[in-house]
Amino acid sequence: MVKKEVSDSMINPCNSIRQHGHIKQQQQGFAAVRIRTIAGNMTSDQLRKVAYLSDKYGQGQLHITTRQSVEIHWVQENQLKTMFQEIYDFGLLLAVRGPRVMTVIACPGVTLCKRGIGDTTRLATQLNDCVVGRDLSGKTKIAVSGCPSSCAKPQINDIGLHGIIIPTVFEGCVGCNFCTQHCKVAAIKVEEMIPSIDSSKCIGCGACVKNCPQKALTAKRQGYTVYVGGKIGKKPMLGTKIFSVIPEQEAISCIQRILEAYSRLSFKGERIGTVINRIGMTNFQQEVLK
């Protein structure tokens, strides 16, 4: 295997933020280096490597960022090239900054959480491979939550998704009322052993489907709800729901279409929400569906 070398051009101030997750500290000559995680996950071996890097190049101080990266402080700028080489050699990833798709954040999802619907880790891994780091008009944050509890805060990201189950009534109800006991929004009633669902109240958490012992409630549709245009910062805004339910297997193509529409419609520096405010949600959605 040929060893990948880190060149001097890769730490040029003009492109360092684009190519590497490091930022200048207020202290002259020092930088903070950000190491990316996938859906907030790291192995114990990776953590030991990060600790080693922090001890060797920093002051043993680490910070977990809001985008689930690990930040090493007090790195001398004249040691960045050497440190980057070790990061590559360890098989670690540097975080992403600037006008491009940033590190995808996610909750544990269905693999660990009892409320999970979507496989957030798998989706975040796929997004890391195919869209993270893509140059765009402005920075673009993506968050994935496994259910409508929205622990990863998809509504305040440029693109946000949460898992959803749309329940429907099947047959076999025995009137046990397990579904009503588990529904936190009182969206379901059982009368004479016939469940009825109030769609105006249902949030799609799937608790009724998961907890019905007779399987009298099933998933009519399952996948992700998609939001666009959310952000925080100086002018915060909540994302707008662009798709109520998309199949899980279509999540990647959906996000790619959103990014392509954003790329076509945006001016330099505009976030997705700014584009939507300028042209309207209907027009933006039409561009996504082209």
Beta-strand portion reads 15-25%
Please state the CA-atom Rg, rounded to the nearest Å.
Answer: 22 Å
Query: What composes the largest sheet?
Result: 5 strands, antiparallel
Low-confidence segments: 7-18
Q: Roughly how much helix do the residues carry, as a percent range?
A: 25-40%
Q: What oligomeric state do the depicted chains represent?
A: single chain
Order of helices and strands: HEEHEEHEEHEEHEEHEEHHH
Q: Give the full name of the CATH homologous superfamily of the largest domain.
A: Sulfite Reductase Hemoprotein, domain 1
Into how many domains do the coordinates divide?
2
Query: What name does CATH use for the topology of the largest domain?
Result: Sulfite Reductase Hemoprotein, domain 1
The span between the termini is 43 Å
Name the CATH class of the largest domain: Alpha Beta
Number of strands: 12
Q: Outline, from the CA principal axes?
A: globular
Give the helix tally: 9
CATH arch. level architecture of the largest domain: 2-Layer Sandwich
Which structural class should the secondary elements be placed in?
alpha+beta
Keywords: 4Fe-4S, Heme, Iron, Iron-sulfur, Metal-binding, Oxidoreductase
Organism: Pelosinus propionicus DSM 13327
GO molecular function, one term: 4 iron, 4 sulfur cluster binding
Protein name: Dissimilatory sulfite reductase (Desulfoviridin), alpha and beta subunits
How would you describe this structure in keywords?
globular; 290 residues; 4Fe4S_Fe-S-bd; Alpha-Beta Plaits; iron; 2 domains; 5-stranded antiparallel beta sheet; oxidoreductase activity; Sulfite Reductase Hemoprotein, domain 1; alpha+beta; iron-sulfur; 5-stranded mixed beta sheet
